[in-house]
Amino acid sequence: AKKDGRRRARTFDPSMLQVLEQRELLRRSLRVALQHGEFFIEYQPLVDRSLAITGFEALLRWRHPILGAISPVAFIPMAEADGLMSEIGQWVLEEACRQALTWPAHYTVAVNLSPAEFLTPGLTDRVSHTLDTVGLPAERLELEITETVLLERTINNLDALNTLNVLGIQISLDDFGTEYSSLSYLKNFPFDNIKVDKYFINDLPDDQKSQTIVRFVIAMAHGLGMRVTAEGVETAEQASWLQAEGCDRLQGYFLSPPLRAELIDEFIHRSLL
Ligand code: C2E
Ligand code: CA
Ligand code: CA
Ligand code: CA
């Protein structure tokens, strides 16, 4: 389907049909994936400036029986579009909170909230009910939201975030700087933590522009009483630059890739040696 080089309009392209069929297959599979137990969670450590573990971020995984591992970047938007993400997200929340109970008592667990989940009515009741049921103190839960969710329904968003905040849950602004960034979010919403996107970390420590931006974000966040987490830290050089600049937490392959739950005990043990 590719040899002749140029693409003509209205020409039937069999590879396109395959893509559509695959999407349809995925979509149908997604509807039953939860009942079939095909989801699991991996946990990626976050560390403080002295590289001590502060907790883990829960990252959803889907292993399709035939297609194998499918990236959350591919299936989460699909689940959102089909209205499945609230149910899946609730499963993630409960599962992640249960896991956190098996960790040292000062570790937190961070759970991602997709826009659809965040905008579902009753979110705060659902979260606080889950914490009660599982028995996890609110202080040990961190919720990560991206700027996209703040674009809509500002008053309700503010209410929801304030309620979560009052419960003692920590709120993180994920992927900071990559979406519809607006500093007004930082003024209006009660974030505890800003996660600087990997995009700004990638070219550290050499790239001047990245340096300037990251320094600025750290200074601004600290001035606002928020902490900063750098995402996607892949090298020792990036880590030491960030430590020296006062970045509060680091996350990335340099420290550890996301781990299956069974491997966490060993990881914690090794990190304490
Ligand atoms: P995210 O929340 O920004 O998560 C960070 C992503 O970067 C993860 O990809 C993680 O595996 C990856 N990562 C971590 N360290 C490094 C690094 O050093 N280098 C590189 N190149 N990548 C690194 P993952 O697990 O594929 O998740 C992708 C996105 O899917 C997440 O981005 C998040 O937006 C979404 N997601 C994952 N799990 C959930 C979930 O339970 N609920 C919701 N709503 N979204 C989720
Ligand atoms: Ca995240
Ligand atoms: Ca992120
Ligand atoms: Ca991201």
Automatic annotation (TrEMBL):
UniProt KW keywords: Plasmid
Annotated ranges, domain EAL: 23-272
Transmembrane feature ranges: none
Annotated signal peptide: none
Superkingdom of origin organism: Bacteria
Name of protein: Bifunctional diguanylate cyclase/phosphodiesterase
Protein source organism: Rhizobium sullae (Rhizobium hedysari)
Lineage: Bacteria, Pseudomonadati, Pseudomonadota, Alphaproteobacteria, Hyphomicrobiales
Entire-sequence positions represented here: 281 to 553 of 564
